[in-house]
Amino acid sequence: MTTSDPTGLHRVLDEPVAGSLPLPQAARRLDTRPTLWPDEVRIRVERLNLDAASFRQLESAHDGDGDAVRREVLDIVAERGKMQNPVTGSGGMLVGVVEEVGPESPLGLAVGDRVATLVSLTLTPLVIEDALEGWTGEDEQVPCDGYAILFGRSIAAVLPDDEAPELALSVMDVCGAPALTRRIVTTYAEESKIDGEASKTDASGVTVAVIGGGGKSGSLSLAAAREAGAGHLIGVVPTDSEAERLRAAGLADEVVVADARNPVALRDAITKAGGPADVTVVCVDVPGCEGGAILATADGGTVIFFSMATSFSAAALGAEGLAADVTMLVGNGYVPGHAAYALDLLRANPGVRSLFEGRLAP
Amino acid sequence: MTTSDPTGLHRVLDEPVAGSLPLPQAARRLDTRPTLWPDEVRIRVERLNLDAASFRQLESAHDGDGDAVRREVLDIVAERGKMQNPVTGSGGMLVGVVEEVGPESPLGLAVGDRVATLVSLTLTPLVIEDALEGWTGEDEQVPCDGYAILFGRSIAAVLPDDEAPELALSVMDVCGAPALTRRIVTTYAEESKIDGEASKTDASGVTVAVIGGGGKSGSLSLAAAREAGAGHLIGVVPTDSEAERLRAAGLADEVVVADARNPVALRDAITKAGGPADVTVVCVDVPGCEGGAILATADGGTVIFFSMATSFSAAALGAEGLAADVTMLVGNGYVPGHAAYALDLLRANPGVRSLFEGRLAP
Fold first, then answer.
1. Residue A91 covered by a domain
2. B209 and B340: one domain?
3. Which of A65, A201, B147, B195 is the right S-S partner for A189, CB 3.0 to 4.6 Å?
4. Which of B5, B30, B312 to substitute to test the interface with A, most A CBs within 10 Å?
């Protein structure tokens, strides 16, 4: 191909089927040439963060033999031109420094910027040049010298100077959740006219429940709901010890312990804590939370599903079976400005910081 | 239980696990006593419509032996107190006449109303009293004498006098799609103030694409988008013959043929037909349409997934991988007033009627 496509289609090397190519994520093999198309960016890679599910699979397939894990990662990247675990289908993200920016790149990056990619490694052309010599193969954090390519529609966030890189990465990894939570809470705010002219939104009547409020995406979502002005915040956690930590963080008005897989228990717990919720945010990675989230949500309310364990049909049939007039959103990991917003929440909320640092502590 | 729960929890006969009961849909066995709790309704059943996937499974498991199929349905209903295929997990719907209405029922039904239930048989207490003598077991339409119970949160729609029951049922079966399409198109309409006071919404700038526009839910969604005032309607169909039928029905401004599983082809076809779309409605029951629907949608637009073949993770990761700022909705089959609205669309649109009648014709 002589012209580039913002999706990266011009780097897909698969044979066309019926005249058409798969997108890079679904492709077997990507073109990794270092020369840039005009809308691309090349990154000098410093570190790969393998997706946790992918690393676990590799580790267990090779019985914890780090050399074998390293060889398999090298083989995958050499063969496919990207890091995509063939069993889990997942990738990860990378950290590096911008090496060259095409003249038509819309990403707003400059040479020398230290960035994290927020699109998956499963669609990022990647060449490893140091045979991963600095990696034992025993950890999902992979020191790496090499280069990667970003497309016109990719996303990368500049790492902040004032935060530890591990903490910043950990926040950026889930930054879609708070940004979308803020957006949805705002849609429930009432417009209050001032002097009949200027107007301002008032979300103080909005109740938000976050299932898994003590986790990474959950605590950021609580902070986002507060920042958006929501009047009543309910955090749901699975254990007393997690409840204690979330209470200490001060991010919710009410913290309740409930099993999110038990629909009636979840509904009753949220109702007792001041629900039903206008906005329910599901942040727990266990299957079977759809019914409870729907039942805990007020008529006309919205459920945002951020858990990858969500079943589309369980949500759709569950709401229909309960005659629940709720809007259900597939949590989109991309909202413009999401990374900067999540870092702002980290800086403004000591409670968020303490929960994140507690998770990173060895 | 002495008091009823609007979800029907009071009729679940399963043993509680950790002090809690599953909802009726997930329950093993329901209480089918004919005596009503105050918020319930009892229906005299005339016909069961088994879910197509369920009937196909039964038919093939018994090699087309109708007597064996009938015996299995009788066994399931006798054992579980509801019709839920243990393999497919699905049920179906029923038609009958209201026999008794509890004094606190919120459903608005009167004794003698002929109704179709719009919640699944998988959560509806059912007793069969005629041993299904009128059924050969060779057809998913099951003549039946017996009774069924509706809960406070169930849904039933009164069948219209002026339409053939098969046609009305066929419309009601997919009535969530047009109601939600209308609601979403309306959110994209601009408010235009008239004399600074009264206001009216103008959706003439809204472009809607319906993937699978020639099908049942698709054609109704096109008609709903038109009724809501959308300015430009694009119908996408898989074959030339279906394109011809949809053009003849006059429901779309542009009809294009594209394979919805091919993301780039779908995007290009919709762009050429006047897209990208502000609202994209996915009504085709084949897997792999998430990427194309996302790519065909404008920044800030909405994708409504009505297909049960939708993959939650493909939608979530697909949008993130494409840095697509789109809102993605799990199509909820319940929107208040949905059945009456869908029938209104049938009556107002000869094109919708002709497509539906064409499908019902033997």
1. yes
2. yes
3. A201
4. B312
Domain count, chain B: 2
Residues A158 and A186 occupy one common structural domain: no
- Here the tokens at position B161 are 């006098």
Residue in B315, B333, B271, B262 with CA at minimum distance from that of residue B296: B271
Tokens 């959706």: give the residue.
B203
Structure-token match 């963080």, residue found: A249
- Please indicate, yes or no, whether residues B158 and B181 belong to a single structural domain of this protein: no
Domain termination site, one of A162, A185, A205: A162
User: What are A173's two structure tokens?
Assistant: 């990894």
Which amino acid, one-letter code, is at B324?
A
Of B96 and B89, more confident: B96
**How large is the C-alpha radius of gyration of chain B?**
22
**B 116-155 near A (Cβ less than 8 A):** 118-120, 122-123, 153-155
Q: Which chain A positions have a beta carbon within 8 Å of B312's beta carbon?
A: 305, 308, 310-312, 315, 330
- Asked if residue A329 lies in contact with residue B319, where contact means CB atoms within 8 angstroms, the answer is no
Which residue on chain A is closest to B302 by alpha carbon?
A329
Nearest CA-CA partner of B109 in B164, B152, B45, B163 = B152
Give the pLDDT band (50/70/90) at residue B200.
Answer: low
In this prediction the pTM is 0.89
> Are A82 and A228 within one domain?
no
Nearest to B313 among A295, A308, A316 (CB): A308
Q: Which of A20, A176, A327 sits opposite B262 (nearest CB)?
A: A20
In terms of domains, do A36 and A124 share one? yes
Total residues belonging to chain B: 362
Shared-domain flag, residues A350 and A233: yes
Query: Is the four-CA dihedral B68, B71, B77, B79 of positive or negative sign?
Result: negative
Residue A155 lies in a domain: yes
Residue A212 domain-assigned? yes
Q: Is B321 on the interface with A (CB under 8 A)?
A: yes
Closest chain A residue to B308 measured between Cα atoms? Answer: A313
**Residue range of the domain that includes B46:** 9-162
The interface residues of chain A toward chain B in range 223-262, judged by CB-CB distance below 8 A, are: 259, 262
Whether residue A316 and residue B331 make contact (CB cut-off 8 A), yes or no, is yes
Q: Is B280 at the interface with chain A, CB within 8 A?
A: no
- DSSP line for B264-324: HHHHHHHHHTT-SEEEEEE---SS--HHHHHHTEEEEEEEEE--TT--HHHHHHHHHHTT-
Query: Quick one: average pLDDT of A187-197?
Result: 70
On average, the pLDDT of chain A sits at 92
Cβ burial of A263 (10 Å; 0-12, 13-18, 19+) is: buried
Please check whether residue B3 lies inside any domain of the structure.
no
Together in a domain, B75 and B199: no
Residue-wise pLDDT for B240-276, tens only, equals 999 999 999 999 999 999 999 999 899 999 999 999 9
Token pair for B314: 């493909």
* Closest Cβ–Cβ partner in B18, B322, B327 for A7: B322
B1 confidence band (pLDDT: 50, 70, 90): low
Complex confidence, ipTM: 0.88
Instruction: Check residues B72 and A88 and name the one with the higher pLDDT.
Output: B72
Q: Distance (Å) from the C-alpha of residue B151 to the closest C-alpha of chain A?
A: 10
Do A241 and A118 share a domain, yes or no?
Answer: no
Give B197's pLDDT tier (boundaries 50, 70, 90).
Answer: low
- Domain endpoint, select from A111, A129, A162: A162
- How would DSSP label each residue in B193-223? EETTTEEEEE-TT-EEEEETTTSHHHHHHHH
For B157, the token pair is: 């729609």
